């Protein structure tokens, strides 16, 4: 009996390495047959028993459309890519999760409209009523890589703009007076500032996201496989925020240490308690999961209570 096939699109380009690392950490390594092949598979023994998984590399820009029409069932893209395709509110696409991952480490980016520093424009609506910068044109120009999304956005905002498609390096347009405004995806905003652009409007925040075809989610087999992948990826993202601490504590100091752990709600997730084991000599072993940013403080407090045999470990998976 032939198994159903789950089709997954993963990004090439700048997101490829961080996304494939996330899948590896989740126990779902991607394997491509040949070095330059764009077609591969997901090496998961558990999933292989229930479904055939086919992985293909695609540009994140194109993924929302193919997910919407059902050519693929699951993909990793970004919010701004869905916006550019005009599919943010399309019921054929379900956004399953967001991930704080990017090539340069920024968890979120911003899709903004910027104008030159010396431009009189203060609000984006003024783009339609001021004189164009480019000679011989009747309308203000908005230069962007997000051509389709910009056209849809300008139409919804009832703005008569000359939308110009560009393939990168938008900041350089300032030096030659080639644009009245740019619609750009920025991380820190430093490049815009260095090239004398001023942000006048933020359209949205964007983050890497996992999307699925809504009909595929409703399918018993496809939906089950998608939910397993989502859970495994989410457990890795969650685990990156935590450390596991194990240590021994004497019977005499046990009460004070337990009070420290339970008295600081920031250390523990709601409803979670330390794991406490009895040792043969009457002392105790304690194991607890804490946020990474609390590790140094907690270690200092425990050291002052005379605990011993402290071991810290990174979490591989964490499901609250």
Name of the CATH first level of the largest domain: Alpha Beta
Q: Please tell me what the overall shape is.
A: globular
Low-confidence stretches: none
Q: Architecture of the largest domain, according to CATH?
A: 3-Layer(aba) Sandwich
Give the averaged pLDDT, no decimals. Answer: 87
What is the share of helical residues? 25-40%
* Cα gyration radius (Å): 26 Å
Label this structure with key terms.
16 strands; D-Maltodextrin-Binding Protein, domain 2; 3 domains; 27% helix; 7-stranded mixed β-sheet; 10 helices; 320 residues; alpha+beta; Alpha-Beta Plaits; 5-stranded mixed β-sheet
Q: What secondary-structure arrangement, pairings included, does this model have?
A:
Blueprint: E1 5-11, H1 16-25, E2 30-32, E3 39-42, H2 45-50, E4 52-58, H3 63-68, E5 74-78, H4 79-84, E6 93-99, E7 109-116, E8 141-144, H5 147-156, E9 162-165, E10 181-186, H6 190-194, E11 197-206, E12 208-213, H7 214-218, H8 220-239, E13 242-249, H9 254-263, E14 275-278, E15 284-291, H10 295-303, E16 308-314
Parallel strand pairs: 1-4, 1-5, 8-9, 8-10
Antiparallel strand pairs: 2-3, 3-4, 5-12, 6-12, 7-10, 7-11, 13-15, 13-16, 14-15
Protein model, in words:
The protein has 3 domains: 134 residues, 3-Layer(aba) Sandwich (D-Maltodextrin-Binding Protein, domain 2); 97 residues, D-Maltodextrin-Binding Protein, domain 2, CATH 3.40.190; 73 residues, Alpha-Beta Plaits. It has a 7-stranded mixed sheet with strand order 2-3-4-1-5-12-6. The chain has a 5-stranded mixed sheet with strand order 9-8-10-7-11. It has a 4-stranded antiparallel sheet with strand order 14-15-13-16, with no helix packed on it. Strand 2 and strand 3 form a beta hairpin. The two termini are 37 Å apart. The longest helix has 20 residues. It is 27% helix and 31% strand. It is built from 10 helices and 16 strands. The mean pLDDT is 87. It has 320 residues and is an alpha+beta fold.
């Amino acid at each position: 009996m032939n198994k159903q096939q789950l089709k997954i699109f993963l990004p090439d380009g700048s997101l490829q390495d961080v996304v494939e690392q996330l899948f590896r950490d989740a126990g779902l390594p991607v394997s491509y047959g040949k070095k330059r092949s764009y077609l591969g598979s997901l090496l998961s023994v558990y999933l292989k028993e229930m479904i055939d998984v086919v992985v293909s590399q695609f540009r994140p820009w194109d993924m929302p459309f193919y997910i919407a029409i059902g050519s693929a069932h699951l993909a990793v893209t970004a919010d701004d890519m869905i916006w550019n395709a005009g599919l943010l509110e399309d019921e054929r696409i379900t956004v399953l999760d967001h991930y704080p991952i990017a090539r340069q480490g920024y968890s979120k980016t911003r899709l903004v409209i910027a104008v030159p520093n010396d431009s009189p424009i203060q609000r984006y609506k003024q783009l339609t009523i001021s004189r164009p910068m480019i000679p011989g044109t009747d309308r203000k120009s908005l230069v962007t890589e997000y051509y389709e999304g910009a056209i849809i956005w300008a139409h919804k905002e009832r703005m008569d703009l000359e939308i110009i498609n560009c393939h990168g390096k938008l900041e350089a347009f300032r030096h030659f007076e080639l644009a009245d405004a740019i619609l750009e995806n920025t991380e820190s905003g430093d490049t815009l500032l260095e090239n004398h652009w001023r942000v006048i409007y933020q359209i949205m925040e964007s983050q890497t996201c996992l999307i699925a075809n809504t009909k595929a989610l409703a399918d018993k087999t496809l939906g089950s496989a998608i939910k397993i992948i989502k859970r495994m990826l989410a457990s890795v993202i969650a685990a990156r925020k935590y450390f596991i601490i194990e240590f021994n504590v004497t019977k005499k100091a046990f009460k004070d240490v337990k009070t420290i752990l339970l008295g600081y709600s920031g250390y523990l997730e709601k409803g979670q308690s330390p794991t406490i084991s009895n040792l043969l000599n009457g002392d105790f072993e304690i194991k607890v999961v804490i946020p990474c940013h609390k590790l140094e403080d907690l270690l200092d407090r425990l050291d002052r209570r005379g605990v011993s045999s402290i071991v810290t470990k990174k979490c591989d998976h964490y499901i609250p």
